[in-house]
Design a protein that fits this description.
2 copies of one chain form a homodimer.
Chain A: E1 4-9, H1 14-25, E2 30-37, E3 45-48, E4 51-54, E5 56-57, E6 68-71, H2 75-87, E7 91-94, E8 123-125, H3 129-145, E9 147-155, H4 163-177, H5 212-225, E10 231-235, E11 245-253, H6 259-267, E12 272-274, H7 286-289, E13 295-302, E14 309-316, H8 320-334
Helix pairs in contact in A: 1-8, 3-5, 3-8
């Protein structure tokens, strides 16, 4: 593909930085990089291919010469500026939740539904981090045996909540170990040495008692797999881990899959690494998945409570496959 | 009841200490306390009612004058010494897994199946920590609507693994924050800022791919509820929390329960506190449950993936209701 002008909106955030690193690491053909951010980041520079590049303030006029605009600046910013970018001729790959459930906007995980990319009208949505790593594992199982229902509980790292959230976990942990207090600011409760069953940190709950994060897993999974018959329930929690989301996933299928069959299917699935050797205490871990692009799956076993279900443990880097890498992979597939 | 001679085997361990504190806090009528431990603890003293009491070395002759022997010294010790204690006339309340599935031994949670206590032949088993807090919540739902299946994922605190495990979490966390290495000794992998889907730390896995901890939840739940038709699958994990186990529990029932019905049933259930006000960001947390005797339940909602199921979040102090308190409550009910 010919080199592209690439804008990154939200370039100074946790995911924005990972987008820059991922473009560089994957040798994406960048003719020119346009880091964009809000007024607050005026005067900042970001590193790219050994240079420090000036951050520009995001506006409706930012996209005139842009081929691809990777957005990771929050739902409000995406809602406001993605249409301008698309109108100016850029293709937007948006990491926020703003457009994901819009029927006109493809919601894409390249290993799962790459065919959806072609249907875009200027905006493509990147799914939620916790959904992406689950569906890359579910896809081959669904193709082989039709998934009927998924019960998932998540163990989500704080980096998904941004730089201030990482700092809060680290500083609060340090304070508690030294016997000092450190009241929560970013999170609704203490996150150090605690589990918080609420994501996101504010305005989380919807009328049915689920959080918006949980309903993302319910709805996005159906849309990405292209099958409204896949029923999902989710409980999503924030855990004192910096990077790497873990998920305990129970999968009921129409046709019974043995654990061996599932392992064989997953072993050849794109983007998936089977790490499943309990005797050697080998299974996916946040600490070993962090920094890697693949999704790791292990603890695969036939559910003793159901005639046709599997339990498994899925871990991936929430900033990479869960955000920046998936967005860059979409951009790669675009051309 | 008349005052009793109470032996505590494993009196110097994390749970043993909690047993002493619980006996004192609940004003259990102790005529004389006999703290017992292995050779290693020879010469140690433990605090009880303002005095320091000598620890005696556990032997077959330790129980001649003992009325109640609370055991929390590991499965091997229980297997070896509980029969001697029973033979000497003491009633053993054993916190290990040694006797739990023995058909001659009652497995008791006083709020759930107190009637089983009377059937003892000298030994009564205290269930696994993660099972206890789940069944006190399941019981009223089962009575009202017949539970068919439970899918549970746990978030278990390190104190369940003993004093050295607590130290390892604290010291390893400190080391990592200071940029130092701290290789795991107690746990199979780094526990600081990580999630380990394996409990216990060694010899965890059974042939079907589950861990022994997971199979405890599967089998003990059926025995305590007295119903083999309650199907359970569990994924149990260790999280960087000091005290307080959290559980994400999906419960399928024969008769549909609304979330409101479930909350009403649980509000009057013994030992259970409903903490369920999402709008106020109020739900059970390890940090608020630690040090308390009740089991807390919240995030109760009707499962969007199933016509007759509920999701909920259950938290309790694993050392209290999960171990020491439940054992002392059994002792109280004995007389």
């Amino acid at each position: 593909m010919s080199a592209k002008v690439v804008a990154v909106a939200g370039a100074t955030g946790v995911v924005g930085r990972q987008m820059l690193e991922t473009l560089e690491a994957r040798d994406f053909p960048v003719a020119r990089l346009k880091p964009l951010a809000s007024e607050r980041s005026k005067g900042k520079k970001v590193p790219f291919k050994g240079e420090m590049i000036d951050v520009e303030v995001l506006s409706d006029d930012s996209f005139d010469d842009v081929d691809i605009a990777l957005f990771s600046a929050g739902g409000g910013t995406s809602k406001r500026f993605a249409p301008s970018a698309a109108k100016a001729g850029a293709v937007v790959v948006d990491n926020s939740s703003a457009w994901r459930m819009d029927p006109e906007v493809p919601l894409v995980v390249p290993e799962v539904n790459p065919e959806a990319i072609a249907k875009h009208n200027g905006i493509i949505a990147n799914p939620n981090c916790s959904t992406i790593q689950m569906v890359v594992v579910l896809k081959p199982l669904h193709d082989a045996a039709r998934i009927r229902r998924v019960v998932v509980s998540t163990y989500q790292a704080v980096s998904g909540a941004g730089i201030a959230a990482i700092t809060e976990l680290q500083e609060q942990t340090k304070a508690l170990l030294e016997g000092r207090e450190y009241p929560p600011k970013e999170f609704p409760h203490q996150i150090a040495f605690n589990i918080i069953p609420q994501i996101p940190q504010s305005d989380a709950f919807v009328d049915n008692g689920y959080t918006t994060e949980e309903m993302k897993m319910v709805n996005e999974t159906k849309k990405i797999l292209g099958d409204d018959n896949v029923a999902v329930t989710a409980t999503t929690t924030r855990v004192p881990v910096i990077t790497g989301h873990s998920e305990s996933v129970n999968v009921e299928t129409e046709r019974k899959l043995t654990a061996d069959e599932a392992r064989a299917l997953l072993a050849k699935a794109p983007g998936v690494v089977v790490e499943d050797d309990p005797a050697a205490q080998r299974y996916p871990l946040a600490t070993t998945a962090a920094g890697k692009g693949e999704t790791f799956v292990g603890r695969i076993r036939e559910d003793v409570s159901h005639p046709s279900a599997l339990d498994m443990w899925i871990v991936s880097d929430n900033l990479l496959k869960g955000a920046a890498l998936n967005a860059v992979q979409i951009a790669e597939k675009l051309f």
